[in-house]
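Bench notes, afternoon.
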Amino acid sequence: MEPKDEKRSKWLNIRMTETEYEQVEKLRQQSTCKSISDYARKTVLGKPVIMRYRNQSLDDFMASMLQLQNELNAIGNNFNQSVRRLHTLRQLPDLQQWILINEQDKTQLFHKIENITHTIHKAYQLWSRV
């Protein structure tokens, strides 16, 4: 038989300073509790509170990957614009200038790919330390 949910009709009021309240709220945010009432109820009654934890190395990895992704998107956009320009070129001096600019973009792209490879290798070394 399922336990009957009792209606919560009793109040427990606690007065706190702003600093104390901020500390409790910070602890609640680190848990899976959705409200401060739920967190306080579990804490006062001695029930287990499930705490969230963050993997700092994963956070760092994700931040660096997002930055590299944005840079690669910008390089990709530049490359698309460059290829469109190539299709409009008709004279040899314009074509030679395009080749020089394209070589610079290619060098930049290879540098970013090297950064990605290095970042992934660094994350692998960090996580494989078991």
